[in-house]
Amino acid sequence: MSATETSNGGARGFWQRTYAMLVKEFLQLRRDRVSFAMIVMLPIMQLLLFGYAINTTPRNLPTAVLLQEDSDLGRSILKALQNTAYFRFTREVHTVAEFDSLLESGKVLFGVEIPRGFERAVRRGDKPALLVAADATDPVASGSALGALGQIAQSALKHDLYAGDPPSMPFEIRAHARYNPAAESRLNIVPGLVGTILTMTMLIFTALSVTREIERGTMENLLAMPITPVEVMLGKIIPYVLVGFLQATIIIGIGYFLFQVPILGSLGMLALLSTLFIAANLSIGYTFSTIAQNQLQAMQMSMMFFLPNILLSGFMFPFAGMPVWAQWIGEALPLTHYIRIVRAIMLKGASLENLQYDAIALCVLVLVAMSIAVTRFRRTLD
């Protein structure tokens, strides 16, 4: 055989072997339906979320009004606020305590107070003050709305007191950005990072727990032991609860000492609600580990769950600015409620009474996630 034939045969053999490996890889990918579904769904999910759900200039933000007098001018001002498209009045309160409680609980992002005798003071030329209080724990959500306040006086007074534009501002608007008056991003980001990092690590740690046992061949030994599925699950989850506490302590400690993020509320309550949040994520990760056939699939499932958590929870983008369908999805995610809790406790000094809704939502999510995890693991044993 000549050198040329040997060379051609070698080249032909190289491409034949490469083609065989290519076909084998495609067949293996086709058999691994979970991985193939992730490859298709991940870019579709990203495109839909960024295209339809994410809005960096949120509008129709929930607003409460404390109307201490029912006057034509007061109603005109409220109408002018609504016409900016930034404010949507969802609550009308009658006391300052209710006003403050709604802002502390996060049920509204803005509060407008029109004081008693406001219209009479305007007509006398006393230049009274209109108070607009904003929850500035999320500077992106409040910044654009506060910037639009300057247009309100011109719009409200044009038809009530003057034929055209008023000669001068007959009242002043006092915008009070509460909880983060300097609009510092670190006060918004650091508390949110506590929940984001815990979500990512807790999901991955537990999602790999059962699949690791299967791949190492130790699951048979585990099944032979006189132990119930609940005992197995708790034995695997409890160590990661302690790991989660350690991570949360490190992040909060660095935020407090290095970035001067205040902790105005109860650390005990924060620890209790963090336990619920960690348990929810561990249960979800454990469920993924019982569904996945290998560690790669478990990791892919974790990333698929983590993506909507980080985009729809209010960590990166204002929650109130999302469409209703995206908010409904966000309400079903543990991170959404935990971010509200940790920001409210650290920046507002909120009490458990202010956080009832999010605390109950976390409890429900924990019960649902743990029930699914135990059910799935029993099926794995069978």
Structural account:
By secondary structure, the chain is of the alpha/beta class. The chain has 16 helices and 5 strands. α3 (72-83) links the parallel β1 (61-67) and β2. α2 packs parallel to α13 (295-312), α8 runs antiparallel to α13 (295-312) and α12 runs parallel beside α16.
- Tally of DSSP helical segments: 16
Would you tell me the overall average pLDDT?
Answer: 83
Number of strands: 5
The topology string of helices and strands comes to HHEHEHEHEHHEHHHHHHHHH
Q: What structural category characterises the helix and strand content?
A: alpha/beta
What's the story with the biggest beta sheet?
A: 5 strands, mixed
Spans of 5+ residues with little confidence (pLDDT < 50)?
none
Range of strand content: 5-15%
**What is the overall silhouette?**
elongated
Helicity, as a percent range: 55-70%
Q: Order of strands across the biggest sheet?
A: 2-1-3-4-5
Distance between the termini: 61 Å
Cα-based radius of gyration, to the nearest Å = 28 Å
